[in-house]
Amino acid sequence: MKIALLGNPNTGKSSVFNLITGLRQQVGNFPGVTVEKKTGTLQIDGNSHTIIDFPGTYSLYPRSKDEQVVYSVLSNEDSEDYPDVVVVVVDQSNLERNLFLFSQIYDLGLPTILVLNMTDLAQRNGLSVDADKLKTFFPAAQIVSTNARVGMGKERLMTAIADMAQAAPERRTPIPLCPIDDVTCQEQEAKARYTYIHQVIDSSLSRVDKEKKAAVSSLDRLFVHPVFGYIIFAAILFVVFQFIFAFAVIPMDLIDTGFAEFAGWLSLSMPNGVFSDLICQGIIPGIGGVLVFVPQIALLFFFISILEETGYLSRVVFIMDRLMRPLGLNGKSVVPLMSSVACAIPGVMATRTIADWKERMITILVAPLMSCSARIPVYTLLIALVIPKTRILGIFNLQGLVLFGLYTLGLVAALVVAALLKFILKSRDKGFLMLELPSFKSPRWGNVGITVWEKVKVFILDAGKVILAISILLWALATYGPSESMKKNIAKAKKESKELHLSEEKTNHRVASAKMESSYIGHLGHFIEPAIQPLGYDWKIGISLITSFAAREVFVGSLSTIYAVNETDNVNKRLIDKMRAEKRSDGTKVYTLAAGASLMVFYVFAMQCMATLAVVKRETNSWKWPLIQIGFMGVLAYFGAMITFHLLS
Amino acid sequence: MQEVLVFIAIAAASIFLARQFYTKFVRKDAKCDGCAVGKIQEK
Q1: Given Cys at both, which of A38, A161, A407, A558 links A53, Cβ 3.0 to 4.6 Å?
Q2: Which residue of A has its CA nearest to B13?
Q3: Nearest CA-CA distance, residue B35 and chain A, Å
Q4: Residue A596 binned pLDDT confidence (cut-offs 50, 70, 90)
Q5: Residue B17 and residue A550: Cβ atoms within 8 Å?
Q6: Helical ranges in A480-538 per DSSP H
Q7: What's the mean pLDDT in A366-371?
């Protein structure tokens, strides 16, 4: 038997799916489109049934690609996903709107189970649903109540599905749907349905306590207020960034010191040779330099996950819609943009819910300007390097304040570019935002933990593999070079050191620097140096900028590898200390406030992510848009960084 | 021996990065033709 799981967004549909399938799930795509298709297996009385989790939709008439999947499957009996039974999940605390979709599906004549989910929320809002009375309006449907978030109602739902499987009810005569492009017919149908639904609600829903609802509404009035809403959002972000800097320091220092000590110990324990150099100067500094930032990434997702779990992020989407609309963006753009704070890849993919071409294209083009988690290692390393650890007004951490400023700069840049693109791209359609504000809930700590773990795992495994490979290649390029020029430079450095009567340590450092200058990477670095000098960077930073095109966090791994090769005597020295000590040939410091700030601005704007470019190419089905994107972001980054450097020099 | 291990590591890293580049930029993803925003414009 094939079972379709349907419902409005935010009804706990996924929780119901997880509740009845457990871990027996597969994720794929619906045929012909890349809308995610989650399939699970149910074992009832020895029989195996397939359950398909469809995208959340408010109506059978589609407005986006996700919703189109539901229409195309249910309106086509020949579809490979056409169900034998439909399970419709509804939010009991929002019955009126949820029954619209249910009534449409019921009228298709398919055997239907109505799942009244979120019983706890309904009770908290003082609502009570009389299932028997409800059934008098939909006599052919089975009705069960659940609270899937806490695992309640599984047996009832399984029994209802088993009854359906045993009874194998005949399909009732369907009431035909309106044609997909006949809006007038759809409007008339909606009016008729809502008239009927009001009768259903009057009869089967009772409100026992109105005061609680009023309290929630007043909280919402504050969170979505045209002035206070933004102030509260800014204040929350501000506090989150303060916490990230305040709490992450101790574990970061532990990891940093641990890796440095480990590299030092390993270099003494392993037999001398090129492979031990590769491990101690290439791989360990490269990987360790990035793993150091895991505590900050974990903390960021911990806070984001709490905001999402409580329902606050939906309020953010709502208030941002007001801000976005004059700038040519749909309110639906907010979700992809907010997702891009974690990573631009899901952000770009989330634009599939935007039906209008122009709005979707603008969102795709500006999404990578939002500061993603891959920028955290770069930002925090540079902030720790050039921003003093002082407090403003005795309470605000200056470093946290700068991090907040960098995120704000990314958001402002995204909005300004969107406003410009509004005039450049042409489209006749106008988008709209239909958004449900879910009730406030206390966060489920298990879900928060899973989110943090998943994000950290992706960061370590996905980025880690690329960083490992690049660290190996960088080490090789920094260790080997044209042998003649390398020999000549090393001999010259030794001779100069002898003439200057330098200590052994200083001589070794001078020789290592000469070796690196004449390595392949040194040649490449000096070749690009004229182009990056106006931004305040030396050739080592230039090399890291090039390698970090693969992914932004590679910047830190690359610097770790380059400085490790350069300081063969100080394997256990921390990266930040090596960077602080780095000097140009004229004796001036490389990482001044001006150079550090210039680098930060560069990373706010630059499109340093191969994976995002690939996704943009795939989503736009063309090379044109990713090339435009890399072009305008590159120009913004280059000139933004140059202006910053010259202003602060 | 150490040189051989280094050679293997460099070769493996190069192959991995080349493969990443191929799968992300060159290989055609047939599944995704329908989701492209370019197609929406055509419609």
Answers
A1: A38
A2: A469
A3: 6
A4: very high
A5: yes
A6: 483-499, 504-517, 520-532
A7: 93
Q: Give kind and range of the element (H or E) at residue B38.
A: helix B37-42
Mean pLDDT of A372-400: 87
Which SS3 state, helix, strand or coil, does residue A220 take?
helix
Q: Is the pLDDT of residue A88 over 90?
A: yes
Best mutation target, A63, A345, A357, to test chain B (most B CBs within 10 A): A357
**Cα–Cα distance, A117 to A19 (Å, whole number):** 12
* B37 — pLDDT class (breaks 50, 70, 90): very low
Q: How far is it, in rounded angstroms, from Cα A351 to Cα A64?
A: 10
B8 min Cα distance to partner chain A (Å): 10
Categorize the per-residue pLDDT at A32 as very low, low, confident or very high, splitting at 50, 70 and 90. Answer: very low
What is the pLDDT at residue A572?
A: 59
Which residues, 6+ apart, have CB-to-CB distance to A436 below 8 Å?
A: A8, A9, A10, A94, A97, A314
**Closest Cα of chain B to A332: distance in Å?**
15
* Of A418 and A483, the one with more pLDDT: A418
Nearest CA to CA, how far is A115 from chain B (Å)?
31
B-contacting residues of A 411-450, CB under 8 Å? none
Q: Distance (Å, rounded) from C-alpha A36 to C-alpha A73? A: 14
Tell me the chain A residues in contact with residue B21 when contact means C-beta distances shorter than 8 Å: 610
pLDDT of residue A599: 96
Picking from B3, B10, B24, the nearest residue to A611 by CB comes out as B24
- Count A/B contacts: CB-CB distance under 8 Å: 84
Provide the 10 A C-beta neighbour count for residue B27: 11
Contacts of residue B1 in chain A, CB cutoff 8 Å?
275
Residues of B in contact with A69 (CB under 8 A): none
- Chain B positions touching A364 (Cβ under 8 A) are 37
- CA angle at A341 for the pair A337 and A342, rounded to the nearest 5°: 120
CA nearest to A356 within chain B: B40
Sign of CA dihedral A51, A53, A58, A62: negative
Q: Give burial (CB, 10 Å; 0-12/13-18/19+) of A369.
A: buried
Would you call B25 and A65 a contact, using CB atoms and an 8 Å cutoff? no
Chain B residues closer than 8 Å to A628 by CB = none
Task: Quote the pLDDT of residue B6.
Answer: 92
* pLDDT tops 50 at residue A534: yes
A98 and chain B in contact, CB less than 8 A? no
ipTM of the complex model: 0.78
Identity of the amino acid at A66: D
**The pLDDT of residue A500 is above 90:** no
> Across the interface, which of A360, A472, A611 has its CB nearest the CB of B13?
A472
Per the CB < 8 A criterion, the answer to whether A90 and A99 are in contact is: yes
Instruction: Give the tokens for residue B26.
Output: 């060159």
Rounded to whole angstroms, how far apart are CA atoms B11 and A154? 53
**Min distance B21 CA to chain A CA atoms (Å):** 8
Measured over the CA atoms of residue A482, residue A487, residue A492 and residue A497, the dihedral's sign is positive
Which pLDDT score is estimated for B33? 41
Give the integer Cα–Cα distance in Å for A341 and A325: 20
The answer to whether residue A298 neighbours chain B at the CB level (below 8 Å) is: no
Return the structure tokens found at A606: 């630059």
CB A131 within 8 Å of CB A92: no
Give pLDDT, residue A30: 47
Tokens 């299932």 belong to residue: A131
Task: Give me the helices (H) in A22-148, please.
Answer: 65-74, 95-107, 119-124, 131-137
Residues B30/A300, Cβ–Cβ less than 8 Å: no
The whole-model pTM stands at: 0.67
